[in-house]
Design a protein that fits this description.
8 helices
């Protein structure tokens, strides 16, 4: 008999608790904050660095094979595997297949970050949402094409110096020792190109002609 009041009181209390839990469950969660452009660019650069770590040896082999046999000389490499084996034997793994890797990383922080980050930012900014469901509506192909072209153009302009440095540093080991510039790193390569080649074009046409002759001799 003493338990009857307690049991009777549990019914309304349980009803109130269930009502409170259901009302709390109906409250829509706050929408997530959009990822900033800077964060998207950093994530794009980090992802690009991972890809560059894996693919950079292939770029070195490609550049070396393109220069192989230049000027009518006999080719040294039979195929990509033979090129990799000879490069490793001659220079070692890191100094051979990973020469210029810092330029590849710098390229990802310029070209890669702009290309991926700006495209993702534009896609998120111009994606319209359904008023009923709150989900994003599909973006038209021509709009995506325009966004990708814009991001790629900006990335190409920003990353062009690092692209030049990457090719220069990858090809240098194939040159004759007296023609090598012996760049210390990608920053040194870009700075020396700007100082020794770009500025020369503005100062003296005669010096510019001599510099171009030297450049042609490197690949002959």
């Amino acid at each position: 008999m003493l338990l009857l009041p307690v049991v009777a009181a549990m019914g309304p209390a349980e009803h109130l608790a269930n009502h409170f839990m259901m009302a709390k469950a109906k409250v829509a969660p706050a929408p997530p904050k959009p990822t900033s452009l800077g964060t998207r660019m950093v994530l794009g650069a980090l992802g690009g660095m991972g890809a560059a770590t894996v693919c950079h040896p292939l770029d070195v082999i490609r550049v070396q094979m393109q220069l192989d046999g230049g000027g009518g000389t006999a080719k040294s490499y039979k195929n990509p595997l033979d090129a990799a084996a000879q490069i490793i034997k001659r220079k070692g793994l890191f100094q051979g297949l990973y020469t210029g890797i810092d330029a590849a990383y710098l390229r990802q922080w310029t070209y890669g970050s702009c290309r991926v980050g700006i495209y993702a930012y534009l896609l998120n900014a111009f994606t319209k949402k359904d008023e009923k469901t709150g989900k994003g509506l599909p973006v038209a192909f021509h709009e995506k094409l325009l966004m990708g072209s814009t991001a790629g153009a900006i990335g190409s302009i920003v990353g062009l110096p690092t692209e030049v440095a990457l090719v220069r540093m990858s090809a240098e080991s194939k040159m004759a020792p007296e023609l090598r510039r012996n760049y210390k790193n990608s920053i040194d390569c870009i700075a020396r190109i700007a100082k020794e080649e770009v500025l020369v074009q503005e100062i003296s046409p005669a010096q510019n002609s001599q510099q171009q002759d030297k450049q042609r001799q490197r690949f002959e």
